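Hey, resending since the last one bounced:
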Amino acid sequence: MANYIQEIRALVGHKPIILNTAAGILVDTQQRVLLNLRTDTHNWSLPGGYLEYGETYAEACIREYQEDSGLKVKISAPIGIFDRGETAYPNGDVAQTITQLFLVQAIGGQILNQATDETLKLDYFDFKQLPPLLNQQTADLIEAGHQFITKA
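The C-alpha coordinates again:
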Protein backbone atom coordinates (compact mmCIF):
# COMPACT_ATOMS: atom_id res chain seq x y z
CA MET A 1 0.00 0.00 0.00
CA ALA A 2 1.84 3.08 -1.26
CA ASN A 3 1.61 6.41 0.57
CA TYR A 4 0.25 4.79 3.72
CA ILE A 5 1.05 7.82 5.89
CA GLN A 6 -0.74 10.17 3.48
CA GLU A 7 -3.80 7.93 3.55
CA ILE A 8 -3.82 7.87 7.37
CA ARG A 9 -3.38 11.66 7.54
CA ALA A 10 -6.29 12.12 5.12
CA LEU A 11 -8.46 10.29 7.65
CA VAL A 12 -7.21 11.83 10.93
CA GLY A 13 -5.89 15.22 9.88
CA HIS A 14 -3.28 16.66 12.24
CA LYS A 15 -4.43 14.62 15.25
CA PRO A 16 -1.48 13.07 17.16
CA ILE A 17 -0.85 9.50 16.02
CA ILE A 18 1.69 6.77 16.72
CA LEU A 19 3.90 5.81 13.78
CA ASN A 20 6.64 3.24 13.28
CA THR A 21 9.94 4.36 11.83
CA ALA A 22 13.32 2.87 11.02
CA ALA A 23 16.67 4.62 10.94
CA GLY A 24 20.22 3.66 10.17
CA ILE A 25 23.48 4.89 11.60
CA LEU A 26 26.50 4.90 9.30
CA VAL A 27 29.97 6.08 10.25
CA ASP A 28 32.90 6.91 8.01
CA THR A 29 36.55 5.95 8.49
CA GLN A 30 37.00 8.94 10.82
CA GLN A 31 34.15 7.65 13.04
CA ARG A 32 31.81 10.50 12.07
CA VAL A 33 28.07 9.92 11.67
CA LEU A 34 26.19 10.65 8.42
CA LEU A 35 23.20 12.96 8.90
CA ASN A 36 20.70 14.49 6.50
CA LEU A 37 19.36 18.03 6.60
CA ARG A 38 15.60 17.66 6.32
CA THR A 39 13.45 19.73 3.96
CA ASP A 40 10.42 19.72 6.27
CA THR A 41 11.94 20.94 9.53
CA HIS A 42 15.34 22.29 8.36
CA ASN A 43 17.27 20.40 11.01
CA TRP A 44 19.31 17.21 10.99
CA SER A 45 18.44 13.56 11.50
CA LEU A 46 19.63 10.08 10.69
CA PRO A 47 18.50 8.83 7.30
CA GLY A 48 15.33 6.82 7.79
CA GLY A 49 11.60 7.20 7.90
CA TYR A 50 8.14 5.73 8.26
CA LEU A 51 7.29 2.13 7.49
CA GLU A 52 4.88 1.60 4.65
CA TYR A 53 2.11 -0.91 5.25
CA GLY A 54 3.49 -4.46 5.05
CA GLU A 55 7.16 -3.46 5.44
CA THR A 56 9.49 -4.71 8.14
CA TYR A 57 11.69 -2.31 10.07
CA ALA A 58 14.75 -3.61 8.19
CA GLU A 59 13.10 -3.21 4.78
CA ALA A 60 12.01 0.33 5.65
CA CYS A 61 15.51 1.22 6.88
CA ILE A 62 17.12 0.05 3.64
CA ARG A 63 14.51 1.79 1.44
CA GLU A 64 14.46 5.03 3.40
CA TYR A 65 18.24 5.18 3.71
CA GLN A 66 18.60 5.07 -0.06
CA GLU A 67 15.81 7.63 -0.55
CA ASP A 68 17.32 10.02 2.01
CA SER A 69 21.02 9.59 1.22
CA GLY A 70 21.48 7.94 -2.18
CA LEU A 71 23.39 5.09 -0.55
CA LYS A 72 22.47 1.43 -0.73
CA VAL A 73 23.02 -0.11 2.68
CA LYS A 74 22.84 -3.45 4.38
CA ILE A 75 21.91 -4.01 8.00
CA SER A 76 24.94 -4.86 10.13
CA ALA A 77 23.14 -5.10 13.47
CA PRO A 78 19.98 -3.97 15.25
CA ILE A 79 20.77 -1.46 17.98
CA GLY A 80 17.44 -0.95 19.71
CA ILE A 81 13.89 0.31 19.71
CA PHE A 82 13.17 3.85 20.88
CA ASP A 83 9.61 4.70 21.84
CA ARG A 84 9.96 8.07 23.54
CA GLY A 85 9.64 11.02 21.27
CA GLU A 86 7.10 13.27 19.70
CA THR A 87 7.58 15.33 16.61
CA ALA A 88 5.50 18.34 15.64
CA TYR A 89 5.93 19.10 11.95
CA PRO A 90 5.60 22.56 10.38
CA ASN A 91 2.38 21.47 8.57
CA GLY A 92 0.69 20.79 11.95
CA ASP A 93 1.06 16.99 12.00
CA VAL A 94 2.06 15.49 15.35
CA ALA A 95 3.38 11.96 15.79
CA GLN A 96 4.85 9.80 18.50
CA THR A 97 7.43 7.70 16.73
CA ILE A 98 8.55 4.20 17.62
CA THR A 99 11.91 3.83 15.92
CA GLN A 100 14.04 0.76 15.29
CA LEU A 101 17.67 1.80 14.95
CA PHE A 102 20.13 -0.26 12.92
CA LEU A 103 23.85 -0.07 12.37
CA VAL A 104 24.21 -0.02 8.58
CA GLN A 105 27.04 -0.47 6.11
CA ALA A 106 27.19 1.17 2.68
CA ILE A 107 27.26 -1.37 -0.15
CA GLY A 108 26.63 0.87 -3.16
CA GLY A 109 25.16 4.05 -4.52
CA GLN A 110 26.54 7.54 -3.99
CA ILE A 111 25.76 10.24 -1.48
CA LEU A 112 23.24 12.64 -3.00
CA ASN A 113 24.85 15.78 -4.33
CA GLN A 114 21.61 17.68 -4.84
CA ALA A 115 18.50 18.36 -2.83
CA THR A 116 15.50 16.04 -3.01
CA ASP A 117 11.96 16.40 -1.72
CA GLU A 118 13.11 15.10 1.71
CA THR A 119 16.83 15.93 1.97
CA LEU A 120 18.50 19.31 1.49
CA LYS A 121 22.02 17.98 2.01
CA LEU A 122 24.08 15.31 3.77
CA ASP A 123 27.22 15.58 5.84
CA TYR A 124 29.33 13.64 8.31
CA PHE A 125 29.60 14.98 11.85
CA ASP A 126 31.75 14.21 14.85
CA PHE A 127 29.61 12.68 17.59
CA LYS A 128 30.71 15.49 19.92
CA GLN A 129 29.91 18.31 17.49
CA LEU A 130 26.42 17.64 16.19
CA PRO A 131 24.28 20.21 14.36
CA PRO A 132 20.73 21.14 15.45
CA LEU A 133 18.78 17.87 15.55
CA LEU A 134 15.14 17.04 14.75
CA ASN A 135 14.20 16.14 18.33
CA GLN A 136 15.32 14.43 21.53
CA GLN A 137 14.68 11.00 20.07
CA THR A 138 17.15 11.75 17.28
CA ALA A 139 19.74 12.72 19.90
CA ASP A 140 18.99 9.49 21.78
CA LEU A 141 19.37 7.42 18.59
CA ILE A 142 22.71 8.98 17.78
CA GLU A 143 23.99 8.52 21.33
CA ALA A 144 22.90 4.87 21.39
CA GLY A 145 24.54 4.31 18.02
CA HIS A 146 27.74 5.90 19.24
CA GLN A 147 27.74 3.73 22.37
CA PHE A 148 27.09 0.61 20.28
CA ILE A 149 29.91 1.41 17.87
CA THR A 150 32.45 2.21 20.58
CA LYS A 151 31.68 -1.04 22.44
CA ALA A 152 32.02 -3.18 19.28
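The first helix runs from residue 4 to 12.

Sorry for the duplicate.
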